[in-house]
Design goal:
9 helices, alpha/beta
Length: 306
């Protein structure tokens, strides 16, 4: 398989992490945890990869960096960002943690562009030692260069074993039409839009209906931009699958302080495994959620508890 175009701009650090070199910028990965509600607790389900640019060792706003990139180079910079996140996830996370990475659909103007992106990801996965099942491919809210190309690209991603998410639902081109065309595994609700809806009872009711409708289609949901405890409580009442935002955890540069999150994931995995063994020994095939009482006051996650 040809070498990734992103790997040509990568430098390895002494701690095993990777940085990207682009022009006068050094690019680093930051990861933000995504949490699931489980029996009154919040546990990390995955992480989202985010770029953090530096110039002369000083941080630069991502918006400033990306606005400086000429259109002709944007596809390569996006590829570099994904490469960074995949490599850094390989050295930062457990072997079961999932990673969300972005794909801008405006780049997919023809079959060649889609094939290049697909081939590149598979090559980096091999370098990073990460299985395709652990990578969730987010289709961002931009308008696609070709609907047909995007649909075929998503089908190919699924064929390799990736899960697919539609990002920022409710913003720009991330609408029901796109969801119906792509058939994603996950829908991430735009944070600003979700925040407005969570501020009123009719908005909460609307979100609840949308979450329920997606669930009936087998689609999991994520509310982004959760910034207050009240929003978190309302999100849980809507039945959303996962939540993400500053009220839970801020992005951290790789390798980051993920040990506590990973320890919680491993503890939950072992608890679930022990429960399965116990049920089998008792001759039970499955255990309903009703067997375990909810304990919202005991919800814990990462470093926080309420």
């Amino acid at each position: 398989m040809p070498r990734s175009i992103g790997l040509g701009h990568i430098a390895r650090q002494d701690d095993g992490t990777a940085v990207g070199i682009w022009g006068g910028y050094t690019l680093k990965s930051a990861f933000q945890p995504i949490f699931s509600f489980r029996e009154g607790r919040l546990l990390v389900s995955a992480y989202e990869g985010l770029i953090r640019p530096f110039r002369d060792e000083h941080p630069v706003g991502p918006g400033i960096f990306f606005s400086s990139i000429p259109d002709i180079d944007r596809f390569q910079v996006e590829t570099l960002a994904r490469t960074l996140h995949l490599l850094n996830a390989g050295v930062s996370f457990s072997e079961t943690a999932s990673l969300f990475v972005n794909f801008d659909p405006s780049h997919f103007v023809d079959a060649a562009s889609a094939a290049s992106a697909l081939q590149d990801v598979q090559g980096v996965l091999s370098e990073a030692g990460i299985s395709a099942e652990r990578v969730v491919c987010e289709i961002t809210e931009q308008e696609t260069g070709s609907d047909e190309t995007l649909i075929r690209f998503v089908q190919a991603l699924k064929g390799y074993g990736h899960r697919v998410a539609v990002d920022d639902y409710g913003a720009d081109s991330s609408d029901l039409k796109r969801i119906e065309a792509l058939g994603p595994d996950i829908v991430k609700f735009d944070g600003a839009w979700t925040g407005r809806l969570l501020s009123s009872a009719p908005g909460v009711a609307m979100l609840t209906d949308m979450v329920r409708a997606f669930a009936h289609k087998g689609i999991r949901t994520v509310f982004e931009g959760i910034e207050t405890g009240q929003q978190l409580e309302l999100a849980e009442s809507c039945g959303v699958s996962m939540v993400q935002g500053f009220a839970l955890a801020r992005p951290q540069l790789a390798p980051g302080a993920f040990a506590e999150f990973e320890a919680a994931r491993e503890s939950e995995r072992r608890r679930a495994l022990a429960g399965t063994v116990e049920h089998l020994e008792r001759g039970k095939v499955e255990k309903t959620k009703g067997d375990v009482p909810s304990n919202r006051s005991g919800r814990t996650f990462g470093r926080r508890g309420s």
